[in-house]
Amino acid sequence: MKEKGFTLLEMLLVLMVLMAIIAITIPGYQAMSVKKEEQRFFEILQQDVYYAQSQSLDLKQVVKIAFRETKRSYDIYMDTHIPGQTRKIPDSVTLKKTSNLTEIKFNASGSVVQSGTFRFGTSSGEKTMVVHLGGGRVVFSE
């Protein structure tokens, strides 16, 4: 009589193939996860810049976004002293020393007080955020 089933050797071979496939896909997933986290960070940062500008117009007061590299975060200030919102900067994103700004400040009319460039180091290279004087236009680029 013939028994149905798999031998131990066949089971081990299948497990080895599955382990090899998993070992190959995990690093790719981790890299993709880091890139998605960075993308999400820059999307939220862009929304926060637009929010700060609109709040300065609505409230008729100075609103600023200040980067705190030591805390790995940035704060949105609705008045000059108390942060209204704090956002964490991902571990894979750094504010480079070549940036000539550490904050974006909008006056009561929604205009930028000081122009300059933020330079961020990411896992896929450098991203910049250029702040223009006048209407408060902020441009993100890779």
UniProtKB/TrEMBL annotation:
Keywords: Competence, Membrane, Transmembrane, Transmembrane helix. It is found in: Cell surface. The chain crosses the membrane at residues 6-26. NCBIfam families: ComGD. This is Competence type IV pilus minor pilin ComGD. It comes from Planococcus notacanthi. The lineage of its organism: Bacteria, Bacillati, Bacillota, Bacilli, Bacillales.
